[in-house]
Amino acid sequence: MSGRLFAVVGPSGSGKDTLIAAIAQARPDLHIVRRVITRPSAAGGEPFEGVTPAEFERRRAAGAFLFDWQAHGLSYGIPADLARVLATGRDALFNGSRAMLAEAAAKVPALHILHVTARPEVLAARLAARGRETPEDIARRLARAPAPLPPGVPVTEIDNSGALGDALHRALSALAAEGAAAS
C-alpha cells in the first residue's frame, strides 16, 4: 500500500465530522472513507452506511472490513476496498476510534493520526446542543480518561476549540506530502 491513511480521532463534540467535511471540500483528491455502522442511516451526523447488527456480522465474517471495532454499543467497520484505494497511491481519511488504532497501524503502516481536541467547556456546549444526552451523561463523558494513542504512530494534534479555519489549516498541513511526519 503506497497511499497514506489518516485516522481522525478525538472526543465526541470535538468537531471531527465538521473537520472531515471541510477537509473533503478542500482536498477533493482525498478518499474519504464511508464507515459501516450498526445504527439507522437516518440517525444523521457523518455520511455512513447503516446496517443491522446481523448484516454487520455477516459482512465481518465474509471479510468485508479492513478493520472493525465496537464503541458506545455500536459496531463500526472500515470497508476492505480501502486497501485497493491505498494501493493506487491515493491518500485516504476516516473517522476512527482510539480503540482500533493499533490494529489499523498493524494493517496500514502508513497510518497517521489527526487527534482532534477542544477545550472541555467547548465539548460540553457542543454535546448539549446535540440534545442526545442529559447534563449528567455529558459530565460523565467529559470525566472519562481517554485511552492512550498507540506508540510509534505519527500524530498531529489539532485544537478545534475556535475557528474551523484554524483547525482546517492544521489538518491540511498534516495532509501535505511533506507534512506527514509526527508533530
UniProtKB/TrEMBL annotation:
Enzyme class of the recorded protein, top EC level: transferase
Catalytic activity: alpha-D-ribose 1,5-bisphosphate + ATP = 5-phospho-alpha-D-ribose 1-diphosphate + ADP
Record has Transmembrane as a keyword: no
Guanylate kinase/L-type calcium channel beta subunit domain mapped to chain residues: 2-179
Protein keywords: ATP-binding, Nucleotide-binding, Transferase
Keyword Ribosomal protein in record: no
Binding residue positions for ATP: G10, P11, S12, G13, S14, G15, K16, D17
Database matches in SUPFAM superfamilies: P-loop containing nucleoside triphosphate hydrolases (SSF52540)
UniProt GO BP: 5-phosphoribose 1-diphosphate biosynthetic process; organic phosphonate metabolic process
Gene Ontology terms for molecular function: ATP binding; ribose 1,5-bisphosphate phosphokinase activity
UniProt pathway: Metabolic intermediate biosynthesis; 5-phospho-alpha-D-ribose 1-diphosphate biosynthesis; 5-phospho-alpha-D-ribose 1-diphosphate from D-ribose 5-phosphate (route II): step 3/3
GO cellular component labels: cytosol
EC code: 2.7.4.23
PANTHER family (alphabetical): GUANYLATE KINASE-RELATED (PTHR23117), RIBOSE 1,5-BISPHOSPHATE PHOSPHOKINASE PHNN (PTHR23117:SF8)
UniProt similarity note: Belongs to the ribose 1,5-bisphosphokinase family.
Function: Catalyzes the phosphorylation of ribose 1,5-bisphosphate to 5-phospho-D-ribosyl alpha-1-diphosphate (PRPP).
Descriptive protein name: Ribose 1,5-bisphosphate phosphokinase PhnN
Organism of this sequence: Seohaeicola zhoushanensis
